[in-house]
Amino acid sequence: MSAPSYETLLIEAHGPVTLIRLNRPAALNALNAQLLADLEAALDVAEADPEIRCLVLTGSDRAFAAGADIKEMADKSYADMFLADTFARSARRIEACRKPIIAAVAGFALGGGCELAMMCDFIICADTARFGQPEINLGVMPGIGGTQRLTRFVGKSKAMDMILTGRMMDAAEAERAGLVSRVVPAEALEAEALAAAAKIAGQSPVAVMMNKELVETAYETTLSAGVAVERRLFHSLFAFEDQKEGMAAFVEKRKPDFKGR
User: What strand order describes the sheet that includes 168-170?
Assistant: First the structure.
């Protein structure tokens, strides 16, 4: 059965890794309703396929995504935005994805593009990357979690600076501030992201899902409550065959063969 095609995305299969490429080049991959609907659908397909274990989300050399589609929003009223609950469904779908998503960012990741990257599990960026939340220049504000996630990632002072002035952060500053996990040469970005995804895909899918869930939990709860959940999930992994296989492989000095059960 052939993979589905999308109007605004290009999908590439790399074994157990799926690469999703935003593909609105004329609009610098601006996030419009069609792109977000396509992304939701692509995530549904990936989640339903047990052979897919990790995702890479990327754009073009020039832009990961230059923001939300301003032309699509400019004439909308408060009632239009409120009744449609604009961006909410797409954000919830991305946040709910149980399989890890790596954002591979080159060029501009501004506004909604920066927010989309932050919704992924971690960001690997090219040395050409530029991050920003410039919505203040349009008389509005971030609307897909930018004020909340950026503040958690880089702290109050830097988030205030970026959000109130609209300035961009380059790749080196983004790494220093903790927004991205690593910076690589632009020509190596895709290979580095796919290599990281392949490493994740080779792990126990059960353990990957639980580890992802726990890191997310750290942002949502107290330390003591988070540690208690961690301990219970750690105990629970001893009910799975992958734990037996992983520890046996370590003792026997061989590569484990994880089955996800």
Answer: 63-65, 108-110, 130-132, 168-170
